[in-house]
Amino acid sequence: MSEQVFEAKNRKIREQFIFEKRKYPSRFERTIDLSWSIWMFGTEPFRVSLERLSTNGLKYVEIKGDHLSKDSGMTPEMILSELSDFNMKVSGTCGLFGEGNDLSSIDPLSRKNAIAYIRKEIEVLKAVDGRYLIVVPSAVGRPEAADSQEMERSAEALRECARDFNGSGVAAGIEPIRSAEVSLVNSVDDALAYIARVGESSISCVNADTYHMSLEEAHIGEAIIKLGNRLVNLHLADTNRDGLGRGMLDLDTVIMASYLVGMNREGRFLTPEPLGPFPDPYVLSTMPCDTEVMDKLVADTVQYFRERETFIRSL
User: Angle CA(25)–CA(26)–CA(31) in degrees, nearest 5?
Assistant: First the structure.
């Protein structure tokens, strides 16, 4: 019996992985740096979140982009102090973009807020040595377009931040999100087109997410390979947006494709973000943390990922 289309694509990625691993073994010696996006832990104290991650062997954390006003969010000094107690580092920041700081908004104040917000998060990331800021081109939780000019407004607004990203050491990771949540940039191709529309060399990277990819891409592994060096971070969630191993995600192919594009290099990360079935997942950021659920979620996901990575590296 002949292969199904997705099986043939999986096989080609597997064959390429094995070929390159044997031809260039030094490129595959370093394992992937696994981080965790902690804004999903809601109002839980930062220290408690770090303790959960450290207990499960994680050395990196994706912090919550909650510097929405002058006095909101933790200061870099506070972040660094807590990190030092657990010997952890910041991978990047998950930018949170809603109606009040929407790059594509008709409201000029919302766009100005988005620009100011991005600039503030870059400052914080520079101070804590973070590598990327996730940028969403339109408000999360608003899937209907306001008009036909959203793309141009969003690109124009983000263009204002090009100088801030330039030379900062912080990459702008444009995130494609499923069409049920946002009105702009749903796929990898959309993200690349958006980056081209912005037209600034300092804004050229992508933050992809396997959950959104499972809905918007023809094949997750091929989409990862298409991004290549542009992929600075990859959010991980299974096909039901639960922890890894709880759905139908072909994690082996994701891992192989990630190695093929160099996601095991320093400064690039795979970051679990299993948010559950929320049409507007930002509700999690203001909810109390269910510690029992989250403790198990982190433990199960990290263990499953490392088990599959170990198997893939043995091929």
Answer: 95
